[in-house]
Write a structure and sequence with these properties.
This protein is an alpha/beta fold. It has 10 helices and 8 strands. Bound molecules: 2-phosphoglycolic acid.
Length: 226
């Protein structure tokens, strides 16, 4: 049985609906979440029987997302933060998503200018980011919260944090979110080769995959590993 969560974050890909549906069919396994571009989401949702549907952001109302059978919503991805989304905006979105009973995947992670000062600086940054993003969230709502630790310098760059540091970061995230048990994912240039290492790492409960989630053969290997 698969108990790790694997998120496919397609961003603005693939180019056609046909391709999106083809990929979705081949990833339709339990424990997989597919986050297609919003324009394809309804059609992709129709072919999924075991995998879940995710939105890449709270772009339209949570109520609409729910009607589209979306279960997960990614919030605070570094692409959004780079466009000017603040921790205060992220905190608001998070509150809404959880209030609607949707599952939130909150992305946190430091940039290279922080990480280059050492892992301790990165830990402090992530703990502080998390505090701001979570705001005054009630413990009862935290059961639907997932946190994706994604070092910004590792996203789409082919670079990775070491599994040991990813594990330590996941531990810190878990420790800082009240007493609740939350699941922590790792993301940033995950591929079929390194996925296994991260999945075997303590405290890491799944993966958030961007680029490779569009490569059917490679992504299916990751799903198998999980
Ligand atoms: P990547 O993207 O796997 O291409 O680095 C990760 C992400 O979407 O956050």
């Amino acid at each position: 049985m698969m108990n790790k969560l694997i998120i496919a974050n397609w961003k603005m890909n693939p180019p056609t609906l046909k391709e999106a549906v083809r990929l979705a069919r081949s990833y339709d396994k339990k424990g997989v979440v597919i986050a297609p571009p919003l324009v394809f989401i309804e059609e992709v949702g129709k072919v999924l029987k075991k995998a879940s549907l995710g939105a890449q952001d709270l772009k339209i109302s949570a109520d609409k997302l729910k009607r589209l059978k979306i279960k997960y919503v990614i919030i605070g991805h570094s692409d959004r933060r780079a466009l000017g989304e603040t921790d205060a905006m992220i905190a608001k979105k998070l509150k809404i998503v959880l209030a609607y009973g949707l599952r939130a995947i909150l992305c946190v992670g430091e940039k290279w200018n922080v990480r280059k000062r050492g892992i301790a600086a990165a830990k402090r940054f992530v703990a502080s980011q998390l505090r701001k993003d979570l705001g005054k969230l009630k413990n009862s709502k935290i059961k639907n919260l997932f946190v994706a630790y994604e070092p910004v310098w590792a996203i789409g760059t082919g670079k990775n944090e070491t599994p040991e540091n990813a594990s330590e970061m996941a531990r810190i995230v878990k420790k800082s979110v009240a007493k609740s048990k939350i699941r922590v994912l790792y993301g940033g240039s995950v591929n079929a080769k390194n996925a296994k290492l991260f999945l075997e790492t303590r405290n890491v409960d799944g993966l958030l995959v961007g680029g490779v989630s569009l490569k059917a053969e490679e992504f299916n290997k990751i799903i198998k590993n999980a």
